[in-house]
Specification:
Length: 270
């Protein structure tokens, strides 16, 4: 379906429009989202970082899922493997068998040498519904959305009550997710720095998403007031500075995506 007609249809029917009151925000003002796990303290997107996030007790685990050449979903952030591993190219250039023992910890510190790349299925098998997930689909390749949903089903992941939020920088991928599931919360991710550079208007985003994950440098009172007006939640990333965290909490963002979720949590409880 053409994007414009899809948006028009969904906007008109509002068949999956969710209000701000339907969030997990029952006890606290601002959701604590562990970016790639507790990645300030442990190598990102590894079981070590996820275990620590679980111990801290976060509202959501944020993780990056992409497919290998043979369509196995793994958790890894970068497009370029050479930045943090010993091999070149991208996840999509290798079969799972070829990279399943990839060392994704050594770059972070010698003591983490030997930490292996994590299969997304392993995350669901190990943690299941112990976490709520902010699942980012990275570099979407054909079929990734269905593969992820099949795994949710296999591991009986609870998709109700906003326990899983799907996010991506790729709008087409998010529209596919919306077609597959009319209710799952979706966050459009935006990288751009100025309003002029925004690839989509907030109004357009609100037709298929309920939230916007946006670089913290773009978050200001004006954005929040416009977003509040149309019922779009705002999640600044990646906020690691306590003063900035406090500012965002005071401004009323829905959640903060941080490498040090313990810090967000401590401020949020004050
Ligand atoms: O959750 C949003 C944030 O993770 C998007 O940026 O580059 O860290 O995946 P990135
Ligand atoms: Ca991410």
């Amino acid at each position: 379906m053409l994007l414009k007609s899809y948006i028009k249809e969904t906007f008109e029917t509002k068949r999956y429009y969710l209000t701000i009151k339907e969030t997990l925000m029952t006890k606290k003002d601002c959701l604590v989202i562990a970016h790639r796990g507790a990645s300030k303290y442990k190598p990102e997107n590894t079981l070590l970082a996820y275990d620590l996030a679980l111990k801290i007790g976060v509202d959501y685990l944020e993780l990056d899922v992409q497919l290998t050449k043979d369509q196995v979903p793994v958790v890894y952030h970068d497009s370029d493997l050479s930045k943090k591993t010993d091999i070149k190219g991208s996840i999509q250039d290798y079969t799972y068998e070829e990279i399943k023992n990839l060392d994704v910890g050594k770059w972070f510190g010698e003591e983490y040498r030997g930490t292996k790349l994590v299969n997304f299925e392993t995350v669901l098998r190990l943690y299941g519904n112990q976490f709520n997930y902010f699942l980012e689909i990275k570099n979407p390749t054909d079929g990734i959305e269905q593969i992820i949903f099949n795994l949710f089903e296999k591991y009986r992941i609870d998709l109700t009550n906003h326990r899983v939020v799907i996010q991506s920088f790729d709008q087409n991928c998010l529209l596919k997710v919306r077609e597959m599931d009319a209710n799952i919360p979706i966050n459009q991710l935006i990288l751009k720095k100025t309003e002029e550079e925004m690839p989509y208007s907030l109004t357009e985003i609100s037709t298929y998403a309920e939230g916007l994950g946006i670089n913290q440098s773009n978050v200001n009172e004006q954005l929040l007031s416009e977003a509040n007006r149309i019922g779009l939640k705002i999640y600044p990333y990646t906020v690691n500075d306590s003063e900035k965290m406090q500012q965002f909490i005071d401004m009323g963002v829905t959640g903060i995506i941080s490498d040090c979720p313990d810090l967000v949590k401590s401020l949020n409880l004050n």
